[in-house]
Design goal:
globular, about 160 residues, mainly alpha
Length: about 160
């Protein structure tokens, strides 16, 4: 039970609160980098491998998308497309893939919807994306509490 509480604290403190703070002070670009990483981290709790297992990025990202985010995200990640355009590109190049348009609510003057396609680009709205990520955190928390997801040892105080 102590490990589950540590994981819950980590998920809440880092993914829910820290990202909320970033968005709350008007940062919108950097949270996308963190959210791409967070999807992979959430997915890491869904497999039986150690947290530091190598070469698991796409698998873990997909596990989170398929089991915790679901819906349109699952369709958008077909053939790891969302993983490549968001997580890989943003993590390694600090630039989104060509097929993504990153916005926050303040800069979204055209009123595009989150996950809408516009002129061949997928629109991601930071605040809406974070809300979906928070719902994924809650689904993972419920899975941990219900015993459907096995807790992993993490080094978070």
């Amino acid at each position: 039970m102590e490990e589950i509480e540590r994981i819950e604290r980590f998920l809440h403190d880092v993914i829910v609160v820290e990202l909320s703070r970033m968005l709350g002070i008007g940062l919108s670009y950097m949270p996308f980098i963190v959210m791409g990483q967070a999807i992979e981290v959430l997915g890491s709790f869904l497999d039986q491998k150690p947290m530091k297992a190598r070469d698991q990025s796409a698998r873990r990202f997909s596990a989170c998308v398929n089991k915790l985010l679901g819906g349109r995200y699952r369709l958008l990640n077909e053939n790891n497309k969302l993983h490549d355009m968001l997580r890989n590109q943003m993590t390694h190049a600090f630039l989104p893939g060509e097929g993504i348009l990153l916005l926050d609510k303040a800069s979204n003057r055209e009123g595009f919807k989150h996950l809408q396609h516009v002129e061949g680009k997928l629109v991601l709205v930071a605040e809406d994306f974070h809300e979906d990520l928070c719902r994924a955190v809650e689904r993972l928390r419920v899975g941990l509490r219900g015993g459907r997801v096995k807790a992993k040892a993490i080094s978070y105080a």
